[in-house]
Amino acid sequence: MSGTYDLRRTAVLLVDPYNDFLSEGGKIWPRVEPVAQEVGLLGNLRCVVGSAREVGARVVFVPHRRWEPGDYETWDHPNPTQRSIMERHSFARGTWGGEFHPDFQPQPGEVVIHEHWAQSGFANTDLDFQLKQHGISHVVLVGLLANTCIESTARFAMELGYHVTLVRDATAAFQPEMMHAAHELNGPTFAHAILTTAELVAALREGAA
Amino acid sequence: MSGTYDLRRTAVLLVDPYNDFLSEGGKIWPRVEPVAQEVGLLGNLRCVVGSAREVGARVVFVPHRRWEPGDYETWDHPNPTQRSIMERHSFARGTWGGEFHPDFQPQPGEVVIHEHWAQSGFANTDLDFQLKQHGISHVVLVGLLANTCIESTARFAMELGYHVTLVRDATAAFQPEMMHAAHELNGPTFAHAILTTAELVAALREGAA
Amino acid sequence: MSGTYDLRRTAVLLVDPYNDFLSEGGKIWPRVEPVAQEVGLLGNLRCVVGSAREVGARVVFVPHRRWEPGDYETWDHPNPTQRSIMERHSFARGTWGGEFHPDFQPQPGEVVIHEHWAQSGFANTDLDFQLKQHGISHVVLVGLLANTCIESTARFAMELGYHVTLVRDATAAFQPEMMHAAHELNGPTFAHAILTTAELVAALREGAA
Amino acid sequence: MSGTYDLRRTAVLLVDPYNDFLSEGGKIWPRVEPVAQEVGLLGNLRCVVGSAREVGARVVFVPHRRWEPGDYETWDHPNPTQRSIMERHSFARGTWGGEFHPDFQPQPGEVVIHEHWAQSGFANTDLDFQLKQHGISHVVLVGLLANTCIESTARFAMELGYHVTLVRDATAAFQPEMMHAAHELNGPTFAHAILTTAELVAALREGAA
């Protein structure tokens, strides 16, 4: 699968680039690290985000809910991930772990979407609305995790009518078989393109030519 | 994981029970058959649907778009599954393959949702609305395919605030590793319960006691 | 307020053009007729739809639920309009009143959206999705009623990120003060343009030049 | 129209209770004041919120976007209200006008929804999700303005499957005819109950008996 991109209508969605996920010392980094190192996650994220800015494609930040005291406690049925967050306090607001990694900071004019409570960056947020107000029809998903937030955001994007691109080495997961599921088993049923970082960057540059 | 069910607030969502998926001679049955036979799909679907009706839980039909001439042809970017449907005409309207399997026919008063265009039974349909108008807070997903329509419908249900139950032997997929991905890798991150048919039926009967 | 339209990205949404609303002998026509005659509704609808087709803007049909036996009966809380439809059987499926007016028939390739249950053509339907798959960013709303289905569809369109145009003489309502409310009190808070048919047609032709 | 309320499933949605709307010195108070004084808005809001807390119905805060520098500037088509906010900086974040009125402060455990960009408290926010996670099926809308945010939130609530109650003297608008439009022309087509504060409080107490 390949992709061609009208850069005025393309956005890179950078999902959950928190220190807890991406930095040494982050709470979830140890579970992500093996796959992240194998695919070269940090370097590829820098490359995707840098290339998008260079060619003039929009970068949109899609952050998970930063944990606060009381979160989920009055809900009828938090999901398993949320129950686990109630214990480990991932992405806690006001802490270093809940800040974006220093290499992935919003630039002036870049949109930061409302925090999502679960997996999909579209669910219960202004992501679809902000994409429409900026004329976006094509989304490229990078960040974490391949089989949870990235996959749910991608599945929602397709159902909402967007053209969806996954980038197989600009994401990670807790286990290699989760990457396999995301990119070989599930992604091919709903995504319009599944590229490597190198292929994506080439396609973006082609769009800029 | 287990589940307890208030039967007045519980619905079984029966996804895509078409002859093309479930019957000898159906267009997609050959790709589903190995897993379906292994898990005992048809018997388990009969058991889930029969038990739900018996205890008074609502059964809701969640059908895929029945293919019609012209489908997807004017769209900017049909997804890979839709491009394939344009060739093989799955679930074609007016044909046997696009009828529900004879054992899975709506009973008087049972709700049939608008057809979904892609994978999620909630996307671009009245499923969420109909569930609310019938007081449903808990959904149990059965039917096809485990890693596409069932998984997307389940991911959407969780994001919409429903309690979500998967039934590991009342669904099927093209390959065993897709079942593994749905129930061991992805489902445990978003579903509130992942049961066998036997466990579900026991829980429904407990709810009726 | 004025409007400029990129015709490839503009759709006319024709809402509920049923015989019951628009034709002599229709069940609701007597309540619509005074305002319809005053603004020249039928002629203006023909003009808007004809002009859109002429210049190559897309015409999209947005139909209300056609009443069927059983409708709303199992719902927890049908709204007042739905309770009234349960008695008068407006737009009954399979009847002349539930057919589109003969002058407003879908042409080959024109999209007909899923039927909406209440007022908004976006709610519980595939309207947003179909607009995205056809590259639409600007919607022009015509049809019935100005303060119910047209207004709700317009309010939803704005919230979804679309540019919204109302056409003050290509709609009608049961009372003149409902037209006033729609176009002078409420519309100016959410619509991007409120035009006459003549102004709209001029703007569409300008877009085609 | 009357209403009966299961208090465990009922929420009062308090929309936009900002100083800019409700307090002497607020930026928009002068335009709201005549109608607010006439209906006794402040006293009625205190009465509705106090009664809800007393009987154990949930109070949910539904706040408008607090203006920040840069808001709407990169959007393709801000609506007329948003264009006006760009000039007058209503509900500016970090200012007194963008704080809730002192009598309407969230109590511990009360949910504050994501800020809405336009009129509907459901659009692009987590309101529907939070209501589901708290088992709510019935919503009572109070706050501002009757024909914009209250009406759009109410129209969306009905389309989402909720039972909707308007309270005719616990809201206000810029002109009396806007109140008339909201409660006599439009509300009766979509709302399940339109009550006075006194009638609502009696119904809530009945629910508590």
From TrEMBL, chains A, B, C, D:
**Domain of life of the organism in this record?**
Bacteria
Any single GO molecular-function term of the entry would be:
hydrolase activity
Q: Where is the Isochorismatase-like domain?
A: 10-194
Q: By its UniProt entry, which Pfam families does this protein fall under?
A: Isochorismatase (PF00857)
Q: What is its EC number?
A: 3.-.-.-
Judged by the first EC level, this protein's enzyme class is: hydrolase
Record-annotated membrane-spanning stretches: none
Which keywords are on file for this protein? Answer: Hydrolase
Read off the CDD domains from this record.
cysteine_hydrolases
Q: Which Gene3D superfamilies match?
A: Isochorismatase-like (3.40.50.850)
InterPro entries referenced in this protein's UniProt entry, alphabetically: Isochorismatase-like_dom, Isochorismatase-like_hydrls, Isochorismatase-like_sf
The name this protein goes by in its record: Isochorismatase family cysteine hydrolase
The organism of origin for this protein: Streptomyces gibsoniae
